[in-house]
Each structure stands twice: as structure tokens, then as C-alpha cells.
Amino acid sequence: MTAEASFEEVVSEILSRSNARKKTTILALKGVLEGMRAKGVQVYRIVDVGRACEEACVLTTQAIRNKSGDDFKSMIEAFARSIGAATTHLAPSMATPLEQTIASIADLDARTRLRAMIAENKALRAEVNRLKEGFKRLREAPAAALKATEIAPIQMEVLPPLKGMDVVPLERFLSEDWLGDLDWRIGEDGAIYEFGPAGQGVRLTPIGFVSALKGAIKLVRGA
């Protein structure tokens, strides 16, 4: 169970490995926590939750503190995290609107898939940003080196791709939407140009770069 797991996921995981007696206690603790939230409680310390559990004849504070009470502590922390509250172990933090929306979805499988899609999207975005930074550095190359590429286009050798190479970020990098957002265009010479407010294009890549990159993508795709 990861630190990002929702409260319902934590409860479901604990219930899946609990006997009948402990399941009853877990569900009762869940009810106590929800009751505390209904009263406007914003800090879920073990001593406070323990006192509420004792009043409800669910658990003792010591039972939560003990090593055998790790599952109870995990529930308390996950519950506080889900509503942006605090515990003795977790600093206050407000859940983002997106996190709150995901947490409100009743279907556990749907929440899990959605979180996985968001994580994958973040990873792809980071990969594209790395490509963007790499190409922007080409503008910082010495003027003499840039002039030399204008006289004789660079001959680029396409090496056999590694098995399992992920070309999705490369394909997104060459997409019209992504290039358009950056005011970049592909020239007839196969290079990428940046067009500023004045409309004058600044070459960012060697001539023939786009064709070579597309060729590499085709090799990986098996085209």
C-alpha cells in the first residue's frame, strides 16, 4: 500500500486480510472517524481518536498505540490525508481539486485506473519537457558550428533501436499541436524552426533532423 493510497483503498486492503472480529473493529473505527469529521474535527491525533473510540466502546487508545495497532494508525493517517486534515504523523495538507474528485468516485477500480493514467501522463510530459530543453540548447551552440551545418547538412546515422524503446514522447514531440504551442515549425529542409513575434525563423535543429527522427521511429515501430 503506497503513501498515495486513498482512505477507502487503505480500508479495503486491511479488511482483505482481517478476521471477522477485526473487520468489525475496522468498520467501527471508520464510523468513529466519519463521526469526528461530521463534528468539524481538523486534527486527528491518536489520543483524540482513541478517546472517541473509547466513548463508542470500539478501541482503547493504547490498542491504537501498540505495534499491533499499526493498521488502525494507517487508517487514521489515510482518513486525515483524504480530507486535508492533520495527525501526529502527518502535516496538514489540502487535497487538490483533482484529488478530491478522484476520492469521491465510489468505484475502487475506476479510481485506481484514473490514478495510473494521471501518473503515466505526468511521466510522458516530463519526457517531452526533457526533449524540449535539449533542443533549445542547440541555439546556444557556437556560431561557427551552426554556420558549418548550413554549408554541409549533417549526415545522421540511424542506429538499431533498443528493444522496448518508448517512442511515444518522440511522436508527441513531432506532433503539429505540440510544435504549434511552442511556435515551432518543420521546414522544407527537415529542420525545426522557432518563429518569434517578428516572424523570423530561428533554426533549432540540424537540417534533415525530422526525417532522421521519423526514420528511427519507423524502425522501432517495425514499419
Tell me about this structure:
Keywords: Coiled coil. Helices cover about 55% and strands about 5% of the residues. With about 220 residues, the chain is mainly alpha-helical. It folds into two domains: about 5-105; about 125-220, no CATH class. It has a three-stranded antiparallel sheet.
The major beta sheet can be summarized as: 3 strands, antiparallel
Please give the number of β-strands: 3
What class would the helix/strand composition place it in?
Answer: mainly alpha
Number of domains: 2
Q: Show unreliable segments.
A: none
Q: How far apart are the first and last residues' alpha carbons, in Å?
A: 41 Å
SSE ordering: HHHHHHHHHHEEEH
Q: What is the C-alpha radius of gyration, as a whole number of Å?
A: 28 Å
Globally, the shape reads: elongated
Oligomer type: single chain
Instruction: Estimate percent helicity.
Output: 55-70%
Q: How many helices?
A: 11
Share in β-strands: under 5%
List keywords for this structure.
mainly alpha; 3 strands; elongated; 223 residues; single chain
